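Could you please review the protein record set out just below?
***
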Amino acid sequence: MSRKILVVFGTRPEAIKMAPVVQELERRPEFQVQVAVTAQHRELLDQVLELFNLNPAYDLNIMAPNQSLSQITSRVLEGLDPILQKEQPDCVLVHGDTTTTFAAALAAFYRRIPIGHVEAGLRSGSLAFPFPEEGNRLLVSQIASWHFAPTEQARDNLLAQNVPQEHIVVTGNTVIDALSQAASWPQSQTVQKLLQKAEGKRILLLEVHRRESWGRPMEEICQAIARLVDQFHDLEVFCSVHPNPKVRGTVERVLGTKQQVKLLSPLPYDQWVQLMKNCYLIATDSGGMQEEAPSLGKPVVVLRDRTERPEGLAAGTLKLAGTEEEVVFRSIAELLSDQELYQRMASAPNPYGDGKASRRLADAMLYFWGEGARPADFAW
């Protein structure tokens, strides 16, 4: 019997992490897979769809300038409901904690369709950090049928909120599956040119875009970077600038005139992975990069006050710096100056995955339907 799975996502990070899941499910005759995208992000999403050769059956194309969280939610609900009514899938798979994730899960719940939550169980402990993601994932956990936790800590978070253990499988994070693919692809000419211009320099990759970082926090982060390039003349900063005007305006104003800072439009995922492979260290408020970088041996300075990925702190792959200028400056400067600390972080094992998460997830779905053995949980 072939089970119909509707995989729903809308942003670039979701697409990256769900691409290997879709690929794995499509390889198996037990599943009939359809993809629906909301295009909560448009251009950034399309890059990933093309890169991983994903062909959505449905595209809601909801992106609009300056759209609010309420507008995203209502558009996803209204767009997805007739699709669910028509297709009647056996399961809707959602990922993580975006507004698309919450709205898609809610639409499935209203239709009494089982929900599988990929990357379930992440918790920061504060509804304000990150916002609205912490609220989204808490809400999805209440209505999901099956929970694919990336780590043992994520599983424990779910158990603490009374999710039955028999509904949880620890898979590892699917982003490591995607990373393993992208890291093996040939280096692009775009990246080659960037690296040639930075030859002999230590490259700092910078990405900061989260909603709670807008305004003063982002201003302070950029001021810290400006001080760093003034002090460390062998430092070259490649900064991925999110197209949101609230991000771009601050970054361009503070860092746009710095010769050691190269402002980049968001690169295709494979090119960004190639830069990660060749950089010295990473400073980011991104969740995915906290998970990816340890597989490439790159220390990460986390530009957030809290992280829902404490495994990296425990393993020693992450350094939590917050957003205050002085702390950000000192945290990065220490890694640039202290070789012993740098090597310790660079050589720490990755607690987030081993590249086999999608296989465990597909096996777990069969197990939940009573059609296979329970897969062994991922442990690092």
Observations:
- The CA atoms of residues 213 and 323 lie 8 Å apart.
- The chain has a mean pLDDT of 96.
- The first helix runs from residue 12 to 27.
